[in-house]
Amino acid sequence: MIINIEKLKDIAEIEFEDIVELVIVTDINQLRIFLKEGSFIDIWFSLKLKNRYSFHWERKMVDGTIYRHDNAPHKSWKNLKTFPKHFHSGSEDNVTESTISEKPEEGLREFLEFVRQKIKVNSNYSDGKETPDKGEVKF
Q1: Is the distance from CB of 42 to CB of 35 less than 8 angstroms?
Q2: Residues 115 and 125 sit within 8 Å (Cβ to Cβ)
Q3: Tens of each residue's pLDDT in the chain, 139 residues
């Protein structure tokens, strides 16, 4: 699948500038997005397997968690209604259904909005202003 990776880079840098520090195109099908709060996101689209993707938010160095939407057909998740799509919520083993868009631009926006909301809840971070902790963010 050919992805307009530069368009995705622009979306991250412009529409999510409040949480995004830096975006690097690491390959013709990959982005690494560094967030202002210290974590990073890897976005990947397969060049060989049609429509295969991963939106991975690496937070192990911040609070020990990961969040990832992907559609690798793991046998462990075959009972999910959205299989092979699934969402790792906080850890590799805590997996739920994924409703993220399969359209790259929409999926990126949905994932970065989830990240934005989660950052606000977890660290009271929002353009440097404090926000009240409102609990768990659902995706």
Answers
A1: no
A2: no
A3: 678 999 999 999 999 999 999 999 999 999 999 999 999 999 999 999 988 999 999 999 999 999 999 999 999 999 999 999 999 999 999 999 999 999 999 999 999 999 999 998 876 544 444 433 334 445 5
Residues in the chain: 139
Are 115 and 35 in contact, with CB atoms under 8 Å apart? yes
| Spatial CA neighbour of 58 closest among 67, 49, 50 | 67
Alpha-helical regions (H) of 34-103: none
Whole-model pTM: value is: 0.86
- Helix ranges, the chain (H): 5-10, 104-123
* Domain regions of the chain by residue span: 5-123
d(CA 42, CA 34): 9
- 87, two tokens: 């969402």
Please check whether residue 112 is in contact with residue 15, taking contact to mean a CB–CB distance below 8 angstroms. Answer: yes
